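User: My advisor, Dr. K., asked me to get a structural model of this assembly before our group meeting. I'm new to this, so sorry if the format is off. These are the inputs:
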Amino acid sequence: MSDKPDKFIDDSGLRLDGRRVDEIRPMKIDIGVLSRADGSCYLEWGKNKVLAAVYGPRTLHPRRKQIPDAALIRYRYNMASFSVEDRIRPGPSRRSVEISKVSAEAFEPVVLTKFYPNTVIDIFTEIIQADAGTRTAAINAASIALADAGVPMKGLVSACAVGKVDGQLVLDLNKDEDNFGAADLPVAMTQDGEITLIQMDGNLTQEEFKEAIEMVRVGCMEILEIQKRALYTKFGDDPSFDLTEEDLSDIQSDEQLIDEDADNPVNEDDEGLNEPGDIDPDEKKINGEEDLDGESDEQ
Amino acid sequence: MDRKIVIPGELLSENEQNAGLGTYVEEGKVYSSLYGVLNIKNKVDVIPFSGKYIPRAKDYVIGTVVDITSSNWFFDVRAPYTGMLHVSEYPKRVESSQMSDLLDIGDSAILRVKDVDQSMKVELTLRERGLKRIKIGRVIEIPPSKVPRIIGHGGSMVSMLKKETKCEIFVGQNGRIWINGPEENLDQLTDAIRLIVKESHIHGLTDRIYEFLTDKKSNVDVDSYASPGDDIKFQEDDEIPDDIHRKIDALLDSSED
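Assistant: The format is fine. Below is the predicted structure of the whole assembly, which you can bring to the meeting.
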């Protein structure tokens, strides 16, 4: 992995893995894969392989950690020692503890913890195979696992990264782009586009940053559609799904179709039938500038 | 038509008056807070596919003793919180030393939730008709969110199950079901309940379960008529069949496994 590619984006505008700059990697989602967990999800995103399990709400021990009027969200992000090319030391590291903390906070605004005083909702995410963007993949999987566990939430959380290579912004970095790129900006957001996690590595100008947020917003909405599709089709090709789709389009009356995404080969499965780029123009406004500034110092 | 599946954050209604169970209101609109099926009656409810049992006052539950202190039994009621049964809530006067004789650790009982306070302290009672320690039968567990499906509209499902299998059934709100009857019927009933849990989100459930239960019986008839031998004639006799039916049911069940 030590050789840096000469060029990350070729003359026709395609990246090393053949994607366009605003294209995410294919994602595959399996729900309810662990029998002992209350909710679980296995997610593949490009070469990333992530397993998420949710237990709870359940009694929290030690008792001094209990919150009298809410549930505690405990999140564990862990990379398997074999998940990367050079074996990593098993167990918590500085990096995984940090990611666990910010990821737990990414779910706090959406999970309705007030219904379960003095309890804990445990979320475990294991990175089985890593290829850049594992924290975002873990959040996407955890979001589905929480829904599968029947935990009440205001909505799903979707996460995606954006970065800079060869002086150009690219969505959903892969390993090479992450290692040799100039910036990496993972973002998690709710369906309303409210950012619940943002971190940054490297440098971006203010203009680039704003543009990057817009790109990642579109990326997260695509991922949200994939997550929704996975949940709707958990019980097989449910006939009610067609109805759901119609209803959805009724609800989002002002939706704007992004043309480039219409032929998006993002999804291998029937998810590909979906138009992943549907977003509401109202959602495009950045409604979290202060949040961004407040949290972006975590490098 | 099948029921509509909804996911957390899905817009359900523009009118906040419609907000029912499993929903939340934001800016005057109703959204789903759970992953489940939509149920529109007077209000818009979401019935979740899964989730933990949260005790509420007046619920009937089936609990298992996990601990005994000087004046309380502690019950696991499949909730994030343990249930507490004070000795004064036992139907008769109990000395501290006798407590484990009446209800020992591991014993189960049909209980009622007397009260749940703000900090989710769950108080249970046995002082009511029908509440008792479970001595016979079986207890099976299902996701608590499926309990309404087992009971059915106005108890239609549970009464049909009782009638068709001739078993006693008690459904606890916490997703534990106590059943009692002849062994072979219990097996059939267990299968039927598993089927309900599996197909609970599809319409016409009661009818399909009825078919499931009666199908097995008619299979028995067909088989017995088809097989040679004199003993078949017993089947036509009205005095014996129940017992034989059950036995053949059991045979069929075991051969299917």
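One thing worth pointing out at the meeting: Chain B touches chain A at residues 1-9, 11, 22, 24, 26, 31, 33-36, 48-52, 54, 80-82, 118-120, 145, 201 (CB under 8 Å).

User: Perfect, thanks a lot.
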